Amino acid sequence: MKVRCFNIDWDTDGESLEDCGLPTECVLELDTEFLEMHGGEDDIADELADKLSDQYGFCHYGFEYEIVKEQA
């Protein structure tokens, strides 16, 4: 399943997003097995939060998300 994360509020310690190479939105992939085991809203948000930090190497204060494509 593809999930669009947007309005990402990165913790850049005062640096600009451009200088840090950070997007304000991106699309991440969630494994369907994960969803079958943990399909709640809190679980999805937690998994996305971890993926954002892992992928970009920065912590964040929060973000919004929407499911853009579910796998068949």
Describe this protein's structure.
With 72 residues, the chain is of the alpha+beta class. Helix content is 38%, strand content 33%. It has one domain. Strands 2-1-3 form a three-stranded antiparallel beta sheet, covered by helices on one side. The mean pLDDT is 88. It contains three helices and three strands. It has helices at 17-20, 32-38, 41-56, and strands at residues 2-10, 25-29, 60-69.
Radius of gyration based on Cα positions? 13 Å
- Strand % is 25-35%
By DSSP, the count of extended strands is 3
The global form is elongated
What helical percentage do the residues reach?
25-40%
Order of helices and strands: EHEHHE
* Number of H/I helices: 3
What distance lies between the first and last C-alpha atoms, to the nearest angstrom?
A: 9 Å
Architecture blueprint of SSEs:
Layout: E1 2-10, H1 17-20, E2 25-29, H2 32-38, H3 41-56, E3 60-69
Antiparallel strand pairs: 1-2, 1-3
Give structural attributes.
single chain, 72 residues, alpha+beta, elongated
Outline:
Helix content is 38%, strand content 33%. The protein is α+β, with helices and mostly antiparallel strands and 72 residues long. The chain has one domain (2-69).
